[in-house]
Structures are given as C-alpha cells and as structure tokens.
Specification:
about 475 residues; Alpha-Beta Plaits; globular; single chain; 7-stranded antiparallel β-sheet; 5-stranded antiparallel β-sheet; alpha+beta; Uridine Diphospho-n-acetylenolpyruvylglucosamine Reductase, domain 3; Uridine Diphospho-n-acetylenolpyruvylglucosamine Reductase, domain 2
Length: about 475
C-alpha cells in the first residue's frame, strides 16, 4: 500500500474530481487493450499541466511508490497496465499542440495529443506526421514514443524514433531534462532515440518535438487478391526484389477480410485467401513510372484479381478496411490475442504456412493482418474466454508463433512492445549478458525501478519461463488473470 502521506500529498496537489480512488472510478483504468490481465492502482491522477506530472513523479520518488503513465490505453502488450497499489498518471488532458512551425517542419506537442490530430493540424500547410498506427484515431503521441510505434507506412518512412527530434522529460526521480532538440543533425549521442521505445522505464515525456513531412503529391494504391496466403507473402518478396520502395505493403487473410467487410464495407474480394495492399506515393513522374513497374511485378505473382484505387475516396475505403481490421475481428470472436512478431521478408511465406499449420494443430482460428513490407506479423488468435482453458491454449499458440519468429531470425515484437505480455520470451531472444546490460541501463536512470515497474525487463537473470505457468507478475500479486 502507498503511504497515507503520499495520498495526503496528492490530495493537496489535485482537486477531488481529478484524484480517483473509489473502486468505480478506478475500474476503467484496471486494464489496457490487453484485457486478459488487470490490476487496480491505489489512485489515478488526471493531470492537466506538466508541473502536475513533475510533482506527482517527485512524490512517488519521495515515498518509494511505483507509477505508470497512461494515454488512451491502447497498448496491446500490457504496457500501460497499472501497478497494483501504485499510482497511475493519466495524460489525456495534457493534449496541447504547443507549436507548429511549417517553415521548420516541426510540431511540439504534449504526450496526450492524439496521433491523427498532429496531421490534421499540419494539413493547412501541406504537411503531415508520417507514423500511422492502426489506432491513430485514438492513440497518443506519448504512447507512440513509449513503444516506438510504426504503422502501415513505416516501410518507407520508419518508426516513431525516426520522427522524434527532441523531448522534454521528467526522469523517475523528478528531474526534468531536455533530450535532443529541433534539428535533424545533432551532435553527440542520440538521447531522444534512447528514450523512444523504452516503454516508460525512463520516465515521462512532457513535450515531444516531431518532424513533419510534405504531403505526397500523388498516391497509387493497388489491391491484389490471391488464392493462398503464402502466395501473397511471396509476392511481397517479389516487389522488394524488384527494387520498389513502396509507401506501404499490407497483407490480410480471409478471416480479416470478412471481418473488415462486415464492419466498414471496404469492397475487398470476399473469397480471397490473401489480400495484398501496395501503395506508392511521391512526385507524379516518379510514381507513374514505379506504378507501371509494380503492375508488371504483381502480374507475375499470379493474383486472380487486381484492383487500382480510382480516386481518393476509393483509396480511403481501402485503408479504412485495413485500419479497422483489429477491432473488426471482434465480430468473429468474443476474445482474441493480437500478437506482434517479426520475420525476415524473405521468410514471410514460410512463416504464414507455419501459422496456418499451428492454427490447424491447436484447432484455433487465426486471422492474419500485418505490415508485410517489414515482416511485422499481427496474427489475431481467436478464442472464447468463457471456455475453460481457452485463454491458456490461445497463449500457447501465441508462444509458438513468437518462438517461430525467433527461429526464423526475427524478433518477438515489431511495434507493440514487450510490456508484461512478452517478458517470458526475452530470455529466448537475448542472452544473459544482453539482459543484464539492459537492466543496468534502466537502474542507472531509475535505481528504485519506480517507472512502469515489472514491464519490458524480466527480473534477475531472466530464466526461461514455462509457457503455461503463472505470469511472473501474478506470482508477485501485481496482476490478476481474468
């Protein structure tokens, strides 16, 4: 339990309506988008100023109480899961775009600013913010920074780390520091890049300086439908081998297609086993030349149908279907696990065949939606949580997919982060020296391990954990499994 002194101090700092302590008030914060686990914080503070964040962090440090910063709670890895009896700092009201400089092509924003709102603010200047996670209608820049989010267009433009120039940060002891700046060319170590993707272990970003890009003058968006998912995966390798740097390359399987069609009516071929979405963007002369080449490459991959978006409305329908896929799968199953692994592009077909095999072996449906251009798989494992043992079987299948990614030379996560979901796989991905180095870096910045305690880094020497055993945070009584 946090000390009564801490709660008393928070009571003096926040009015009653912004210091949540009652069970009904805390219930919405007990879980993030990984709903299989939940924990109840001692209190949630609804901050409205940067100074309130700083003072809260200082008080947590003073009384040795862990804290978690949370934006919209869209983390799919449990990254913003509360710490039992800790303090949650809710950042949604810290949502101001402090400065937008079209000449310098930068935007300075607070962490609660919604991703898409940056592009909306920049649109009058023909600029936009490139990282576009599927949840960009609701996810916040602070969460994007914590997990180094990507999106459909990360193949060409990179991840969040490639678009953050600087940050004002409060460290876990309450010290405020400036990392990076406003220039693309900086001297010294990339401290802003060091912070991005740290999943909240190094403190809380208060201001983030983002790089804006000119809007592409032209788009060409192509749908190619295949009789097998493996064929769609192999087509990705063919496009990359042809030397085409596409803006985006996405794949959806038939389950995902059916869900998206039911949800938003994107006009996808409903009988396709695999659907490839490829988008080119840039200057008209370049795009038209690449478009002609792309159609030639796609033709030799033997799709049974090819469609080209005829106008902007048609293009937006295509992307609405893809970006709605995660939520739309809820129409097919009451519960599902969104997995996030990476394989080399050259092994996409092999990975998809293995996932299909595992799905059949376990008797569990898997809907596949992923960023094919960089090999980032998002298998959605469908189960009914009301059936005894269903969650455990779904997690076992998810674990096999993660180990497959490692065995194929990939990674346990592409953009969703480790959070608390993938702690048990860290020792399979990294050796003891790697893990100890990461832990040493974390403790150098946060010796008390107050910031987002229990996430990303396993404790001690990180022994391999039995897949079906209790989660390490369950053993500590810090979370519960529904």
């Amino acid at each position: 339990m946090p000390s009564t002194n801490l709660i008393s101090a928070l009571t003096r700092l926040f009015p009653a309506q912004r210091l949540l302590q009652q069970s009904a008030q805390l219930a919405p914060y007990e879980s993030d988008a990984l709903t299989a686990f939940h924990a109840r914080p001692a209190a949630v503070v609804l901050v409205e100023t940067q100074q309130e964040v700083i003072e809260t962090v200082k008080l947590c440090h003073q009384y040795n109480v862990p804290f978690v910063a949370r934006g919209s709670g869209t983390s799919l890895s449990g990254g913003s899961l509360p710490i039992k009896e800790g303090i949650m700092i809710a950042l949604n009201r810290l949502n101001r775009i402090l400065r937008l400089d079209p000449a310098e092509r930068i935007a300075v924003v607070e962490p609660g600013v919604v991703n898409l709102d940056v592009s909306r603010a920049a649109a009058p200047y023909d600029l936009y913010y490139a990282p576009d996670p599927s949840s960009q209608l609701i996810c916040t820049i602070g969460g994007n920074v914590a997990f180094n989010s990507g999106g459909a267009h990360c193949l060409k433009y990179g991840m969040t780390a490639n678009h953050v120039l600087g940050m004002k940060v409060v460290l876990p002891d309450g010290e405020v520091v400036q990392l990076g700046g406003e220039s693309l060319e900086q001297v010294g170590p990339d401290l802003a890049g060091f912070f991005v993707g740290s999943e909240g272990l190094f403190g809380v970003a208060l201001e983030i300086t983002l790089r804006l890009l000119p809007k592409p003058a032209m788009y060409r968006t192509v749908l190619a439908a295949y009789r097998s998912l493996e064929a769609a995966g192999e087509a990705v390798s063919q496009v990359v081998a042809a030397g085409l740097l596409t803006g985006a390359m996405e794949i959806m399987d038939n389950l995902a297609i059916q869900a998206a069609e039911a949800a938003v009516g994107a006009g996808y071929p409903k009988d396709a086993a695999g659907l490839l979405i490829v988008e080119l963007e840039g200057e008209p002369v370049q795009v038209e030349a690449e478009f002609a080449h792309l159609l030639q490459v796609i033709e030799i991959t033997n799709p049974y149908e090819v469609r080209v978006a005829q106008d902007e409305a048609d293009r937006m329908r295509i992307w609405k279907g893809r970006k709605s896929a995660f939520s739309a799968v809820g129409r097919l199953s009451p519960d599902y696990i969104v997995q996030d692994g990476v394989v080399p592009r050259s092994k996409l077909g092999q990975a998809l065949a293995k996932i299909n095999q595992l799905s059949a072996t376990y008797g569990i449906r898997v809907a596949n939606v992923f960023h094919a251009g960089d090999g980032n798989l998002h298998p959605l494992i469908l189960y009914n949580g009301r059936e005894a043992g269903a969650l455990e079987r779904a997690e076992a299948l998810a674990g096999e997919i993660i180990h497959m990614c490692i065995d194929l030379g990939g990674s346990i996560t592409g953009e969703h982060g480790v959070g608390m979901e993938k702690l048990q796989y860290m020792a399979s991905m990294f050796n003891a020296t790697d893990l100890q180095t990461m832990t040493n870096l974390r403790r150098a910045i946060d010796p008390l391990e107050l910031a987002n305690r229990g996430k990303k880094l396993p404790d001690g020497e990180a022994p391999a954990l039995h897949l079906h055993g209790p989660h390490p945070l369950e053993k500590l009584g810090l979370i519960s499994r529904e």
